[in-house]
Amino acid sequence: PYTIVYTKDRKYLCDDNLKKLETKLDATFLRVHRSFIINRNCVTSIASRKNGDYDAHLSNDKLVRMSRHLRQNWESLLH
């Protein structure tokens, strides 16, 4: 029923669920997992988990799992 939005310096509690928030964001943001939307400009590297899933390393030193089920959303990051 709510979403936590992380920025470089802070985190915010948003009243929208992730699906609703996703519709409000532009193409800079990608749904990469049922629990995560990331800013494509903050991805520093991508590593395979050897099972079809990948991990995105972000510029804030966070690691985000990217689901193979949503690969069509984030496949452009591989190239």
Any key phrases for this structure?
79 residues, mainly beta, 3-stranded antiparallel β-sheet, 2 helices, 7 strands, 41% strand
What does this structure look like?
The protein has helices at 18-24, 71-74; strands at 3-6, 11-14, 29-33, 36-39, 43-48, 54-58, 63-66. By secondary structure, the chain is mainly beta. Strands 5-6-7 form a 3-stranded antiparallel sheet, with no helix packed on it. A two-stranded antiparallel ribbon has the order 1-2. Strands 3-4 form a two-stranded antiparallel sheet. A hairpin with a 5-residue loop joins strand 5 and strand 6. The longest helix is centred in the N-terminal third of the chain and has 7 residues, at 18-24. The radius of gyration is 12 Å and the shape is globular.
